Amino acid sequence: MPGLTIHLPAVGGYAHAAAALAAHEREPSDIVHVVEYVTPAVDPTTVAAGRDVLLDGTVAPVSTIPVRGFPGSADPYRVAVTAYPGGGMLRGTDRDVLRVADGVVYLPSVYTTEGEFAEQYRACLLRVRELLSPLRLGLDALVLTTDYTATATRASYPRCGRPRRELLGDGPVHPGAAGILVDVPLAPGAMVALDSVAATGPLHAVNPGWARYDTLTYKPAVVAGRHVFGAGFGALDPVTQTAVHEHDLLAQAAFVYGNIAAVFGAAGGAHAVSLLEYVTPDAVSAYPRLADLRAEYFPGAVVTSVVCDALLRPEFLIEVVPRGLLPERAAA
Prior knowledge:
Blueprint lengths: L5 E2 L6 H10 L7 E8 L5 H12 L6 E5 L10 E7 L5 E3 L6 E4 L2 E3 L3 E2 L5 H16 L9 E8 L11 H8 L7 E6 L11 E7 L3 E4 L14 E4 L2 E4 L18 H18 L4 E9 L10 H8 L4 E6 L2 E2 L6 E8 L2 H4 L1
Parallel strand pairs: 2-3, 9-10, 15-16
Antiparallel strand pairs: 1-4, 2-4, 5-6, 6-7, 7-11, 8-11, 9-11, 10-17, 12-13, 13-14, 14-18, 15-18
Helix pairs in contact: 1-2, 3-4, 5-6
């Protein structure tokens, strides 16, 4: 049944994630996706041990996301869990596992350590295509991609455009996308890590009329059933393509939240169920000031906040990746 997916915000370790799952009356067998946000200080064996305890034999896709830290916290890692009654449908084993719940396909994160930047990006997309193939889905089923690259490769980032164009095609539907800069990779030599989500049913892109997206390989949002997957939103004017409100986190956040609200309105009146907020080190001290503003725009949305090293536009202090849910009448 639609609307039964629960997105839990990232919490400080697997013990806290287990408690949050229990508080929502969900079992380990309901887990469809686990996201580990790991800092350079993390002990991988501790994370793996906690994962085994939480999953308790359940096989679920795991996304491992490198981050610099968390606003106001010294946690070495945090865990976010998505759950659906019964755990949906399982495909694959070990790190190749997928789960499908309410038409959404949850995948593990992927990376490679071989090749130069664009070759690694291409390899990641090909790996995602390989993971989707048992479901008879291709890259045209993607609804969201989030890539993690380093500040040192910021100048090389436009090179990912060619493999995206060649492998994702000409649309008309492209996934939402976000690009985050993190300087400690998942493995030595990995210049790109890719996290992605797909869907099994018909998709349609959402664009309030912003012409800049006509030539890009991503869209402001994609609708799959009742689910709305937003791209990463930064303080970039969608008409002039210039960054706005430099050095002002509150103004940037207001601009970002307003654009997300406009896109969700264009999607058919979706309400936000979760927000993933990436903030830069320069924004951490002011970040608590966003709480009231966020609540005005998106009451009830769960929030995961992480600190990255930087964002693709140096002027950006925050990038927000939202997910929403449409009213049943809008998705009918």
